[in-house]
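Subject: Interface between my chains keeps coming out wrong

I've been trying for a while to get a sensible model of this assembly. When I model each chain on its own everything looks fine, but I need the whole thing in one frame so I can look at the contacts. Pasting all components below, labels as-is. Any help appreciated, I'm running out of ideas.
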Amino acid sequence: MPASSFDIKRIIRPNILGLEPYRCARDDYSEGILLDANENSYGPAFQTEAGEEGPVCSGAADALQLHRYPDPLGRDVKQRVLQLRPGVPSVDNVFLGVGSDEVIDLLVRITCAPGRDAILITPPTYGMYKVVASVNDVGVVKVPLVVEDGSFQLDVDAVIAAATGNPAVKVIWLCSPGNPTGTFLREEDVRRVLESGFGGLVVVDEAYVDFVRPERGQSYARLVGEYPGLFVMQTMSKSFGLAGIRLGVGIGSREVVGYLNRTKAPYSVSTLTLSVAREALSDRGLQQMRRVAQSLAAQRDEYLIPELLRLPRVGAVIGGNDANFVLCRIVDGAGRPSSELAKAVYTEMAENRGLVVRFRGADYGCEGCLRITVGTADENRAVVATLRAALEALATG
Ligand SMILES: Cc1ncc(COP(=O)(O)O)c(C=O)c1O
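Reply #2:
Try treating it as a single job with all components included. I did that and got this:
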């Protein structure tokens, strides 16, 4: 089906289609003496006396005008997102939210009627899609990834059949590279889903996209001009090293971005967050992000994976290894994946050896798996040594 089959009127909930968004005087006038928003003209509490020496941050408070509400749309930050992701048509195709987690929540809220509609997910996948669906009383249709060959690619025919055969499904949620799979989804598969005749939204969560090997592919953000039903999510929490500022970036059609903007709380993204994001997305910030992402990917490929595979009870490193983590399978003495041993190793490392990884053995297709984040070179050496010691202690104990 052609890309134009996406029908915004069918996908956006009627209450959101008719929503009268919150407006403030600042939308029309932002210059002069501003007494329209009940802010405090004396400034932050820690610098109420003019000229008084304050804490370190008082200079920043002045420069950033922290006593004012933030810019609700962050257009200058969005402009910089266009530099990060070439091929995105305009700032009107970019949405900013309080981390991807808020973007996920808003996408569900604008598309799915509680108690009636559903999202489609492809397990094993990021846990928040299901949590957000439950919070919003929205159904979840599961079409597992192909796990038998360890590739964790899409079962494209099954995804299309489940989505097109069920009118309740409003959103297909893909994750590329996947969490916990680390697998970058193939472009031909993503395009097939987009061209399948499913008239709803296809979200591709690209939280880890900057760690993808160049030969594997690149962000699908460049396709949003081509497919109005595509919505790509990214975050400052991973490659930019800014999980603390809580900034999620959504890239989609102007229409979908418009409905997200109308629905979000107007000042959800803070001035501090916008200011740090501006810096991180500057030319210098982008260079630094790319340098660090490449170095983490090199640590993953040249040190962590080969060293993990040398450990006696690590049976395999599975998935695509396109993210800043690896998924390794712990096996028993007979070489069978063992979630029991993986869980015991995880607990032993966290409680007795001061090193925390993630147990993923309960996820579909991830029997016996631990997910290990690629850290600094020292941290990577520590995780290999600690895992070796924990495995030895448990295998012999
Ligand atoms: C696939 C995926 N999407 C989104 C997020 C959350 O991102 P944010 O920190 O922007 O809320 C995570 C966090 O681990 C993730 O793994």
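Reply #3:
Confirming on my end. The mean pLDDT is 93.
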